[in-house]
Every structure is written in C-alpha cells, then in structure tokens.
Amino acid sequence: MSPSSTVSGHGRLGTSESPEVSAEKAAASAEEIWPTKDFGLVPIPKRLQYNPIKPFHFGILLNVSFGFGSTFIVANLYYCQPLLIEFSKSFNVTYEEVSRIPTLVQAGYLVGLLLISPLGDLVRRRQLVLLLVATSTTLTIGLAITKNLRVFETLSFLVGVATVTPQILMPLAADLAPPDRRASALSVVLSGLMLGVLIARVLAGVIGNFTTWRVVYYMSIGVQSLVLIGAYLVLPDYPAKNRDLTYFQILFSMAKYAVTEPLVVQVAIINIASSACFTSFWVTLTFLLGGPPYYYSTLVIGLFGLVGMLGVLVGPFAGRVIDKLVPWYATLIATSLLLVSQAVQTAAGGINVAAVIIACFGLDVARQSQQVSLSTRVLSISSAARARLNAILILSLFIGQVMGTSVGTEVFVQHGWRACSLLMLALQGFQIIILLLRGPHCPRKRWFGYEGGLEARKHVVSEREKAQCSGEREVKNDPEAQKEAPTQSGEGLQSDTS
Question: In the chain, fewer beta carbons within 10 Å around the N or the C end?
Fold first, then answer.
C-alpha cells in the first residue's frame, strides 16, 4: 500500500478513531517514507523497522536485553575504582594524582545526563543508543592502550559523557511496555543497572589482582562490542518525539519540570535522601568491617557485595508486585522497609555481623523497589517527556550519592558508626514525611493534599477512570446532559503544556 493511499484510508476512518489514535496516525503519515537505514548508511533489519500499522512487541527477551545492556555499559563508570593503586604504579605517579580519575568519570557522566540523555525526547532512540555505545567502545580502546596519564584522564571524562545509554533505555522501556507491565519492565532495566554498579568493582578487582589493569579495559571493549551488536539486532526503530521542539527548548522544559511539577519535586527530594543513605551505608561499610570488632580482610569485605547482588536479583519480582499497586503505596512500603533495615543497622551494626547482613539485603531490596515505584510515578506524567523526567530522577540520585559519600564518611570518621547510622535513620524517616505530604491520588498540580481518596489497588483505579471517561463521552454526545453537567475545573484535567 502506498503512503498516499494509507493517508486517505486514515481520513475515511477518522470519525471512528479516538483523538490519541488519530494524532498518532497523523504523525505517522507526516513522513512518506520511514527510514530503512541507520545514519543513512547501515540497513535496519526489516523486522525492526518502524511500522505504524504493526507496532513492535515488547517481550521479555527485549526487556532482558535492555537490562544486560545497562549492566555492561554502566560498568564503565566503576572499573577504575579498585584499580587506582595499579594506575599509580603504571603511570608512575602519586595516589593523589590518580584519585582524580573516578571524579572525572563521574563528572563526565553528569555532563552526559544534563546534555545528552534529554535527546531521547528529540531524536530517534535506536540511532542514539548505537552512536553512544560505539563512542564509548572506541574511547575505551584508548583507555586500554594509552601510557599517558593526562590522555587517560581526558578519555575517562569522555567515556563518562557517553555512558548514558541506560538513561535512554529506561524511558524507552516505559514507552514500549504496556501500562500494566511498566513497573516490571523498569525493574528489569534497573536491576541490570545496579548489577553493573556492583559487578564492575568485583570484576576489576579480581582481574587487576591477577593480571594487568589493561586487561580490564580489553574485557570492557569486548562486552561493549557485544552490546553494540545486540543493540543492532534487537533494538526497534521508532520515530523521534517532539519534532516541533529544539534542543534548547528541550533543556529549558527539563528545568521547568524540575521546579514546577509537585510530583517531580517530591520524588527528587525523596530520591536525594534515599540515595544519600544508601551510598553512605556502602561507603562506610568498609570502615566498619575493617575495624573493631570485625577486622575483616579486603576479600571478605568484598564478599558483602554478593549480598547486595542477591537484593538486586529480587528487584524484578518486586516490580511485578508494584504493577498491582498504586505506585504511591509501593513507595510507602519500600521506604518503610528502608527505615526498618536502617534501624537494624543502627541497633547492632557494630556489634553483630548478622545485623550487617540483614541491613545489606534489606536496604538493597527496598532501595530498588523504591526507585522502581518512584520512576513509575514520574514517568507517567508525560509520555512525550520521559527522557527529561528520567534525567531529573538520575540527577537527584547523583546529588544524593555525592552527599552520602562526603557527609557519611565525615560523620563516621569523626563520631563513629552509630552516629552515622543514626543520621541516615533520620533521613529515612524524613523521606516518609515528604511522601505523606501528597496522597496517592493527589492532582498533578497540587503541592499538598489527599484528594481522590486512598484506594491502593491499581485495577480498581483503572476501572474508575474508564467509567469516568465513558460517562464524559456520554455527556458530550447528549446536549441535555451537557446543560446539567457541572463545569469541571480540577487541575487533574489540565493538559501537559510543558
């Protein structure tokens, strides 16, 4: 069927389609020919080419592929941390000089979050992912072979900038997954992300201990190349969103969301506090287990990361539970579990190792469940702005990590493990207070309140919304009912104009 006949067909059926479908098909017919090549050069596999008539199915295989891709890409940010001593020997410099490397990688990542991840709302995401993975892989080749510290530092910064692929995949998963599976889809990608954070340090430490540090980066080149090939073979092509906006308008609207949307502000505050607590726990855990009464070796301390990995593996199962609940309640449950786990650590973390193990597992499971529920809530605000909304979430997480590392370490060194744990316990309680300021169904533009009731079951809320929409259509088609219907001015009915 030719594009012109498709358009005319759409015109004949326009009266029986919903406004959303009509708008989607109008956008679909805006281009006569959909791209069949990446970057105008490399053919896109036919089954992955965009077809507005037959949308691509988002199955478990693609979802898991997103998760594994996130694992091996985000690991770029953490390979360097256990290798600093080896760097100082190889480059013949002091520890102080090589200590800049992790900072530069994280600084590059921050730049990428601010300037590159919002592009997910502006350009074709398949091409963006392929370009980012190819760039980070190429830069890693330089890391593996250079013998100059300044070149290594520059490349580390640039690798950090390019390592935002998971932040493109996260909102893409939210776009592709059905609404009743969105939390599950996000939990799989997030599990991959957190697994990459944990496994990178373990792999780099073990490989660096038995061979040279360069082998770590050779391995990274290999796994990133596999991700690049996998992305080419499984990632579907979708048209760009927000074609009417420029890059600078996208950046401005992201800043606008960060200060004018009550839900985004609330979630960002919770995310900062929670990330600070989580980071502080893992950073100071080394000090706690290496000193009295434990005096564990570095190897034994590293094994506690395996407990964290078990918590990560529970994440997808938690996502299935979150899919059945209104996300606000999932956040409340997860934050309460964070509070309980931190209380266990505060009570006996420096006395009995069993308390540390319980806290490790509880904090990992609860933190991941909380992050999935928070992401599900925020990414539901606007399907056209998910990349920007996700960037705000990750930026708040990044701020919390910096706070947790600096403040947690300072308090632990100056006042001991219990004082540090008490401070984090107070921050966990602060999160619940912030969450309770807005109820589960508070209108989008309200800063405080419990309008909309307290219903916790998602399917009940969905049925109510369907019944309400059906009633509104009946009123619209009945002139007599329109005269009797009250004027609705609730903020929940306002459209997204950002």
Answer: N
pLDDT tens digits along 413-425: 888 889 999 999 9
**Phi, psi (rounded to 5 degrees) for 42:** -95, 125
Proportion of the chain above pLDDT 90, given as a percent = 23
Residue that is written with structure tokens 């300021």 in the block: 437
CB 340 within 8 A of CB 322: no
- Rounded to whole angstroms, how far apart are CA atoms 143 and 141? 5
268 contact partners, CB below 8 Å, separation of at least 6? 258, 392, 393, 396
Report d(CA 424, CA 404) in Å as an integer. Answer: 9
pTM score, whole prediction: 0.76
Helix/strand/coil for 63: helix
pLDDT at residue 445, as a whole number? 85
Neighbours of 458 (CB within 10 A): 19
Instruction: Say which DSSP state 181 is in.
Output: G
Q: Are 370 and 274 a contacting pair, CB within 8 Å?
A: yes
- Which residue shows structure tokens 């391995």? 219
Write the pLDDT tens digit of every residue in 78-114: 888 778 878 888 888 887 788 788 888 888 998 998 8
Which pair of tokens denotes residue 76? 């770029």
- How far is 489 from 96, CA to CA, in rounded Å? 60
Which letter does DSSP use for residue 384 in this model? G
